[in-house]
Amino acid sequence: MNTKVAVSWGARHESLEKCAERLVSCLVGLEAIDTRFSTWTPNFGKRTVVNVSDAKQISDLLIRGQNRRDVGGAVIQELGYSIELVVPNSLARMMLVCGSYSRVKGIGNNCNLTIDRSIAASLGVDGHSKVLAKLVDSWQPESGSVYVFVSRVDDVDKVNLIEWHQNGAIYRNEMAIRQYLCAARLG
Question: HSE (CB half, 13 Å, CA atoms) of 128?
């Protein structure tokens, strides 16, 4: 069972340089938590390995992820920068929107990290907490969580394992942590 670590924040106009700086901080920090987070490739075009500490390369990738108008191809500035990065063999996937300042409801900024069960099992609760803390430190979000999707016969439920709130409050669902992170180890 894959886990997801996600942080989100509302409209916040940030420059390309600031988004790149934050992404470098995030990727370097994730690598320090687990070396399997050291090799990332963009999920579009050439799958060249990203140097996680190279702000110029990160900036170039963020520019390629800008939304464009259907007619004329002009950049839609208020939607910020988007990127999807993957660790080879689908061990992790990061989807990011940074610098969006659109006033349209439902459009905001976020960093979502999907972690394959093989990494999730070895990270355990402490590792997931560190990953969430790194995302919070890098992106300065309004909220964040570690969660799993649990499939049932007729539905899918999102189960939060750890939640972080802007006021610094942390909630740990100990029963769900035991149930789902242990299942990842066994499963």
Answer: 30
φ, ψ for residue 54 (rounded to 5)?
A: -95, 95
What's the DSSP call for residue 124? H
> Residue 148's Cα: distance from chain center in Å?
14
Element (H, E) at 64: helix 55-64
Distance CA 179, CA 15 (A): 42
**For residues 49 and 155, what is the distance between their CA atoms, to the nearest angstrom?**
37
pLDDT in tens, 144-169: 999 886 665 565 567 878 888 877 77
Neighbouring C-alpha atoms within 13 Å toward the C-beta of 108:
13
Which secondary structure element, helix H or strand E, spans residue 85, and what is its range? Answer: strand 81-87
Please tell me the distance from the alpha carbon of residue 18 to that of residue 24, in angstroms, as a whole number.
Answer: 10
Considering the entire predicted model, what is its pTM? 0.86
